[in-house]
Amino acid sequence: MRKPSVQWIIAVVLTLTSAVWQRTSGPTYPMRGSVRLAGQEIALRLARSNSITGRQPVVVTVADAAVTGSVEWRRFPTSDPWATLQMTRQGDHLETDIPPAPEPLMPMAGKLEYRVTLVKGADKASFPDAAAITRFKGDVPAWILVPHIAAMFFGMLFATRAALAAIFGGDTRSSAFLAFGLLVFGGLVLGPVVQKLAFGEYWTGVPFGFDLTDNKTLIAAVAWVLAVIQLRGGRQARVAVVLATVVTMVVFAIPHSVWGSQAKW
User: Fold this and answer.
1) CA 56 to CA 47: how far, in whole Å?
2) Are 54 and 241 in contact (CB under 8 A)?
3) How far apart are alpha carbons 262 and 36 in whole angstroms?
4) pLDDT at position 24
């Protein structure tokens, strides 16, 4: 474990695992499942994020032409009555869009909840039991989004590498400084820009709100500020780096976009 190459391999594996968890566990990741209808299993994949420049497509792949479908939807969170849209068949797909025209396009951070019902003869099946919630966002240019994602990923990577070096021996200092710089740049500089372009606000965490993405970024940044202050010491500095990395891994284990920006109706 003292070999730098071994520590780098472990750091890469842990960082990739965290990134995959972030990608697949959040409330904007597509909801997947299946229903059983008239003896056949039908897989569904419901999107939970869409651009404000268009309507949310709802598509179900089912080759059986005898199967029809509909979508119940309403604004979230509201007590609006549920509206129902009939899906149209395009080859092997049942399709529709929400909100339907001539409804206006959704605002930044606007949300809809919806569920799909499939029918064949006398059989009916709905998915999901609790409606899927989709959020609409502004389009963020790649030249902003890619550096933001890269900075956060490599910040986590260098943080993990710094902690391993602190525990098993190695260059803790340079990795810790890189982790600190990348996380601050990606989370506190580029992060608010991404938030503004996507949802219309630079910051919706403390003290202005409870957005967990903003708040967990702030917690990680504070942990690394405290760790960097201690880097002049010996054992105490190594303990501070390990603690900062643990805090970073814990807060980033919280699924992305939980308690995220939400338009008010």
Assistant:
1) 8
2) no
3) 34
4) 85
Q: Which domains does the chain have, with CATH numbers?
A: 4-26+140-253 (no CATH), 38-137 (2.60.40.10)
Nearest Cα residue to 75 out of 156, 22, 131: 131
List the structure tokens of 83.
């509206």
CB 1 within 8 A of CB 11: no
In the numeric block, the tokens 């400084």 are attached to 177
Q: Compute the residue count for the chain.
A: 265
Say how far apart CA 90 and CA 264 lie, in whole Å: 35
Tell me if residue 60 falls in helix, strand or coil.
strand
pLDDT digits (tens, 9 = 90+) for 214-227: 888 999 999 999 99
Read off the pLDDT of residues 165-201 as tens digits, 9 standing for 90 and up.
999 988 899 999 999 999 999 999 999 999 999 999 9
